[in-house]
């Protein structure tokens, strides 16, 4: 993690220099460390642990020859850096709206830093349009990778190693809202492998509010959305609906400083898989 912290500091500094509107380190992302949110690196550690943890027989994502990480929501590129540093053989492809002033300059920084591992395209525009279009033009792309020589059996996997195993990665952290995240889940499923792709998603409120345990509209989970249905509570509703329908299976969430906060401030990040 020390190297990741150093690179995050350098990327933050470069972003500050490029845009005066980038006023907080890790602004609007999982590396946020001041201002509106300070996750105390809880989300960063959670992702890093899932990527680096060893499953049964020592199998982990790091043993894959060339896993593919697919991300909706690039922003400043800090999460992309986390994936590429945690998985030294991985390649990355992302989708982002591209409306933030520092996104395109940081795309260029990432290309210079990671070369061909940072696939020479980061698709800009609304993900509900750009992800299906890119998939149609590149049907060979899957958010997966070559399997290790020794694969664990599902019966042998323990609960503690359930995240690791031999999985590639899909990470959803784009627009906040019910429709937006439901569409992201559906579109990214078409490039993922059920029960093989590690699914990570931000904009969760609490584990109980997204894993299908609680009914839709549960007062302890469901807050009002903003204009056009945007908001973290709408995103959580989308994950909960997908869980209750058996479309995804949530396996755990990060222990953030906001996990036990009031309805308005609940905020975590979760891991799971596509079930179908």
Element order: H for helix, E for strand: HEEHEHEHEHEHEHHEE
- Integer-rounded radius of gyration: 18 Å
CATH topology name, in short, is Rossmann fold
What is the overall number of helices?
8
Strand fraction band?
15-25%
Q: How are the strands of the largest sheet arranged?
A: 5-4-3-6-7-9-8
Instruction: Report helical residue fraction.
Output: 25-40%
> Architecture, CATH level 2?
3-Layer(aba) Sandwich
- The pLDDT mean sits at 83
Q: What characteristic shape results from the CA principal axes?
A: globular
- List unreliable stretches of 5+ residues: 145-166
Could you walk me through the main structural features you see in this protein, from its secondary elements to its overall organization?
It is a single chain. By secondary structure, the protein is of the alpha/beta class. The protein has a single domain, classed as Rossmann fold (3-Layer(aba) Sandwich). The chain has helices at residues 2-18, 42-52, 78-86, 103-114, 127-137, 178-189, 207-210, 232-244; strands at 33-34, 37-38, 68-72, 91-96, 118-124, 169-172, 198-204, 248-253, 268-274. The strands form 2 sheets. The protein has a 7-stranded mixed sheet, with helices on both faces. A hairpin with a 2-residue loop joins strand 1 and strand 2. Helix 1 (2-18) runs antiparallel to helix 3 and helix 5 (127-137) runs parallel beside helix 6 (178-189). 46% of the residues are buried.
């Amino acid at each position: 993690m020390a190297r990741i912290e150093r690179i995050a500091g350098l990327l933050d500094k470069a972003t500050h220099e490029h845009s005066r509107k980038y006023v907080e380190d890790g602004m609007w992302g999982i590396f946020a460390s001041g201002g509106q949110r300070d996750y105390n690196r809880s989300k960063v550690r959670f992702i890093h642990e899932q990527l680096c943890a060893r499953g049964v027989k020592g199998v982990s994502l790091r043993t894959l020859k060339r896993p593919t990480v697919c991300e909706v929501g690039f922003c400043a590129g800090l999460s992309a850096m986390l994936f590429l540093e945690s998985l030294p053989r991985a390649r990355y492809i992302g989708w982002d709206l591209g409306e933030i002033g520092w996104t395109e300059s940081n795309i260029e920084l990432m290309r210079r830093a990671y070369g061909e591992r940072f696939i020479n395209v980061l698709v800009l525009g609304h993900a509900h349009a750009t992800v299906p279009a890119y998939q149609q033009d590149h049907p060979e792309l899957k958010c997966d990778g070559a399997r290790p020589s020794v694969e664990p059996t599902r019966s042998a996997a323990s609960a503690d190693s359930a995240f690791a195993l031999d999985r590639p990665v899909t990470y959803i952290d784009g627009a906040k809202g019910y429709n937006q995240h439901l569409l992201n889940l559906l579109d990214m499923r078409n490039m993922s492998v059920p029960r093989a792709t590690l699914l990570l998603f931000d904009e969760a409120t609490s584990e109980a509010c997204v894993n299908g345990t609680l009914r839709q509209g549960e007062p302890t989970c469901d807050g009002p959305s903003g204009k056009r249905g945007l908001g973290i509570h709408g995103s959580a509703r989308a994950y909960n609906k997908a869980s209750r329908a058996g479309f995804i299976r949530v396996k755990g969430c990060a222990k953030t400083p906001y996990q036990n906060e009031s309805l308005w401030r609940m905020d975590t990040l979760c891991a799971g898989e596509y079930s179908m």
